[in-house]
Design a protein that fits this description.
Distance between the termini: 30 Å
Order of helices and strands: EEEHEEHEHEHEEEHEHHEHHH
Radius of gyration: 29 Å
Structural class: alpha+beta
Helix content: 40-55%
Number of domains: 2
Number of helices: 10
Oligomer: single chain
Strand order of the largest sheet: 4-5-10-7-9-8
Shape: elongated
Largest sheet: 6 strands, mixed, barrel
Length: about 300
């Protein structure tokens, strides 16, 4: 999103709730729109309290756009129920232990009752959606907040365009789109590819991942440089060693060894050395990588 405030254009990723349905209705090029909002929740089960800051409110198409495997339940049906909740397997285990959680009620501190309808596999560590619990957006909408183009809670809005649709063509239509719904607000927007979101969003988020991207590139270049040096050293050592083994090669030729047999021998020796090096490198990575990650944060 782009907004002009006091003559300055400000960019941010947060969108008002009506944006999602308006995009779906006004742009036939868009296949699907999913809104998400991350917040915290406190749940009660049998007088025991469980808290999490990883609750996500999502649209019904969330599990189609983002492929998180389900252990139990059909998300298409679950997210159509306003009071249905989906738990990650680890959070369900934390609350219910070995008891089957499906159909069990959970109560929020505000008295809202949610029924566990589905269990999802724990999300991977490299995803933005590290959820413990998922509720439908309709549940959030029903809490009485003011939802309009100019006010109310904000959401992240994800768009899946149809095949052969170019994002820059959609971007060119957004100015008139926002003028239609929020006339005179000087709002605009553009689509950012999902693959760029982590490393290239610091200009409109509070993260510092652009700097991290530069560090990744720097370390990758250092690694390639070290690899090239290692290859050159290996070639030099192999060449020097081959001169010392000239006598061995001559004797083997005298006793009947052919050219192909000698080539196979030297290749086999090289493969064995490389294989041992790879195994040692993997061991070093497992041993030292956690400490290096901690040191460089």
């Amino acid at each position: 999103m782009q907004e002009k405030r006091n003559g300055t254009i400000i960019e941010h990723p947060f969108c008002r709730l009506p944006l999602g349905s308006a995009l779906q209705n006004d742009f036939p090029e868009i296949e699907q729109v999913v809104r998400t909002r991350e917040t915290s929740i406190n749940l009660l089960y049998e007088n025991n309290a469980f808290s999490s800051d990883k609750l996500f409110y999502v649209d019904t198409g969330f599990f189609h756009m983002f492929k998180f495997p389900m252990i139990e339940g059909n998300p298409d049906l679950i997210l159509q129920e306003t009071n249905a909740i989906i738990l990650s397997s680890s959070f369900a285990k934390k609350i219910f232990g070995d008891i089957d959680p499906i159909g069990k009620p959970l109560t929020s501190l505000y008295g809202d009752v949610f029924i566990v309808r589905g269990i999802a596999m724990d999300p991977p560590t490299n995803t933005k959606f590290k959820f413990d619990a998922i509720l439908p957006v309709d549940n959030f909408v029903g809490n009485g907040s003011n939802f309009s183009w100019k006010g109310g809670p904000e959401f992240d809005t994800y768009v899946k365009v149809k095949r052969n649709v170019y994002p820059h063509i959609l971007n060119s239509k957004f100015l008139s789109f926002f003028d239609k719904y929020v006339s005179g607000s000087e709002k605009n927007g553009y689509l950012q590819p999902l693959k760029d979101m982590y490393f290239h969003s610091s200009k409109f988020t509070y993260s510092d991942n652009d700097k991290h991207y530069e560090e990744v590139v720097l370390f990758a270049m250092i690694s390639i440089f070290i690899l090239i040096i290692a290859i050159i050293n290996y070639i030099n050592l192999s060449t020097a060693r081959s001169l010392k083994r000239a006598k061995e090669v001559g004797i083997k030729k005298v006793v009947g060894a052919g050219r192909s047999a000698l080539i196979r021998q030297f290749f086999a020796e090289s493969y064995i050395v490389v294989l041992i090096s790879i195994l040692l490198a993997l061991v070093f990575v497992e041993v030292f990588l956690p400490g290096i990650n901690t040191f460089f944060n």
